[in-house]
Design a protein that fits this description.
CATH class: Alpha Beta
Largest sheet: 7 strands, mixed
Structural class: alpha/beta
Low-confidence stretches: none
Number of strands: 9
Shape: globular
Distance between the termini: 45 Å
Number of helices: 9
CATH superfamily: Vaccinia Virus protein VP39
CATH architecture: 3-Layer(aba) Sandwich
Strand content: 15-25%
Mean pLDDT: 94
Helix content: 25-40%
Number of domains: 1
Radius of gyration: 19 Å
Length: about 250
Amino acid sequence: MKNDSAKKEIDWLLKEKYGGKQNKKFIKDVGRLRKGEPLDYVIGFANFLGCKIDLSKKPLIPRKETEYWTAYAAGDIKKRIDNSSDSLKILDVFAGSGCIGIAIQANVSNVLCDFAEKDANLIKQIKINLKNNFIRVPKCKVVQSDIFSKVKGKYDYILANPPYIPIKNKSKIQKSVLKYEPKEALFGGPDGLKYVGKFLKEAKTHLNEYGRIYMEFDSPQEKKIEKLLLKYKYRKWWFMKDQYGKSRWVVIE
């Protein structure tokens, strides 16, 4: 089974990056795969809701679960726009590669998406992806910000994929993920809620009236997140399941 998986990755690499033609660079990339480097990093990009997300600065690789709820959010935002003549302001926080906000901007008309990301290197990554997906950078603010520290104004939708894996679960994470992907985008302290708590404490002050938050989390954290939502006096919320039937994101008002 492992050999079958490796063959599929090599075939996909050859097709996606090299157009089916082998050369010296392809052989070198096969070596990278065999050492355990994630396929998306070797190819150099990932597809996310029809957008080509460059990964040259090594952000967190976009996950299918994140793509799933981003598609749901896009449908929700579009429905609201269809019932209004106003444009909507969106914020992608903990933005990483910018995949969430870029997918919304690319797939929904009449929205303006800003990005907040702490890592200066990933600020460059977001700008690369805005350019590659033909989204005009001057219209989208890309702010280097520790969660909301440099964010000004209010938004109709705040979309967040914070680091939420508990440190104690480190041994359960794939070796290739631990070795190659940014740990600061994965781990959220002892219980995984270090950044989730900070985010929820501040998010409502950056939300317009009738605005919504979409936030990804790990399914065992649902009850603790509900306690945080009660603590910070949010009005209402819905826990939602991903394509695998696991509680994966929450919609908050």
